[in-house]
Write a structure and sequence with these properties.
The protein is an alpha/beta fold. It has twelve helices and 13 strands. The longest helix has 38 residues, at 175-212. The relative contact order is 0.08.
Length: 430
């Protein structure tokens, strides 16, 4: 398949070849547009943030448009040569692709480019491995890493080509060592799954205990770096780690939140953030952690109101919630980081209603966890959810009620919600 269209974006500052000491690995970022329906970010900004979160320094970006992936190099031999030129020009130590590569493509690219090649899945796994702190979190990340690695053993054993099989040298080069390692990995995966199954049973026991005591459960969900942990700290004064970076929090933290308006406490859980193309192995491995969201009574869906792609991020979170069986749980949308908006972009009201793609409408609160704006409104909504039931009129509306209320809503809502992932709702009405 020939290359149809290509573009290169590189930093304005030239490289400094005379400097040999580097604090962080330098990487080239690559993204490919395969047309409608494909997952493609033309700016590669999110991939750059991921790379920085992993401790890398992006020095150049290159994008291309193809009809289909190249079987050998994913981007084709011509584009691979251009990437090689960028590596030489910017003295890069590695290349990161924004899409998933097959083991063969990754092996071929590393041989051709002469540097380490990583795809989006491998990059996210690296970040998760560095950020996991709890015993459960480390188990989950290790399981996902081994399942990812098990399909890529073949590219790691070129140094074993002197080894042969049994009588008559049957079997490929290094086959004995590869099969041995594959069996070791399979045994380790089996052991990790058994240990995580015990963790899941323990969490199930804890959940049943909370159910018997009538505990009302609230879980924070949302796209990574939307400000969930900052909001969690603002509501509970917990002091958990929060930072302006992707996947700052991996381990679920649960605290009591007292709602004076309801005269009782609820449990509030901060869960791992979601991201576009979240590796399937991670979703499966983090089943025990994500179950906190699936078993919640209400979800606080935190959205970065300053993001230019907030609607796409909302769609991605809803997709993951659907995959873990949490799509029907009542949600309250929290449009966080409103303090980061320009004055003309800020909403005129503290709350309104937002129509979700699944046909339901939920409360939307405009807030800033950093300044505290809108948190009193959010607490009032949670209190009403506790005292009046999960499907109260103010908590969830069906699509059939939408048309009847549309006229009255127009005079109050300043931020328009759209089903189109291509439009932006972070604007005030003229």
């Amino acid at each position: 398949m020939s290359l149809v269209e290509q573009s290169i974006s590189t930093p304005t500052n030239p490289p400094r070849p005379e400097l040999n000491i580097r604090q962080e690995p330098r990487v080239v970022l690559v993204g490919v547009d395969f047309g409608p329906g494909s997952s493609f970010d033309p700016t590669l900004d999110e991939l750059a943030l991921l790379a920085e979160s992993a401790g890398d320094t992006p020095v150049a970006k290159i994008t291309a448009k193809r009809r289909a992936p190249d079987a050998a190099f994913f981007v084709g031999s011509g584009k691979a040569d251009e990437i090689k030129d960028l590596i030489s020009l910017y003295q890069a130590d590695g290349v990161i692709f924004d899409q998933a590569l097959s083991p063969a493509q990754q092996r071929n690219l590393e041989r051709h480019l002469g540097v380490e090649v990583l795809d989006r899945t491998g990059l996210i796994l690296e970040i998760f491995g560095a950020r996991a702190r709890s015993h459960e979190g480390k188990l989950q990340v290790e399981l996902a890493r081994l399942e990812y690695l098990s399909t890529r053993l073949v590219r790691r054993w070129s140094h074993l080509e002197r080894q042969r099989g049994g009588v008559g040298h049957r079997g490929g080069p290094g086959e004995t060592q590869i099969e041995l390692d594959r069996r070791m990995i399979d045994q380790k995966i089996k052991s990790l799954k058994e240990r995580l199954a015990r963790v899941k049973r323990q969490r199930g026991t804890q959940r049943r205990s909370r159910e018997r005591t009538g505990t009302f459960r609230v879980s924070l969900v949302g796209y990574t770096n939307a400000g969930k942990s900052t909001l969690f700290n603002a509501l509970t004064k917990a002091g958990t780690y929060a930072a302006d970076q992707l996947f700052a929090t991996l381990d679920t933290t649960t605290r009591q939140l007292y709602l004076s308006e309801a005269g009782r406490s609820v449990t509030l859980s901060d869960t791992v953030g979601f991201i576009r193309d979240l590796p399937h192995t991670l979703v499966e491995s983090f089943e025990a952690t994500l179950q906190e969201a699936a078993d919640a009574d209400v979800l606080l869906h935190v959205v970065d109101a300053s993001s230019p792609v907030l609607l796409e991020q909302i769609h991605e979170v809803l997709r993951v919630l659907e995959s873990i069986g949490a799509a029907q749980i009542p949600q309250v949308l929290v449009f966080n980081k409103c303090d980061a908006l320009d004055e003309h972009q800020r909403p005129h009201h503290a709350r309104d209603m937002f129509e979700l793609p699944n046909g339901y409408r939920c409360n939307r609160v405009f807030a800033s966890a950093l300044t505290g704006t809108g948190l009193d409104v959010l607490r009032d909504i949670l209190a009403k959810a506790v005292t009046e039931g999960l499907l109260g009129e103010e908590i969830l509306h069906s699509r059939t009620e939408l048309d009847a209320e549309r006229q009255n809503e127009q005079s109050d809502v300043r931020w328009l919600a759209s089903d189109s992932p291509d439009s932006t709702s972070a604007r005030t009405r003229p």
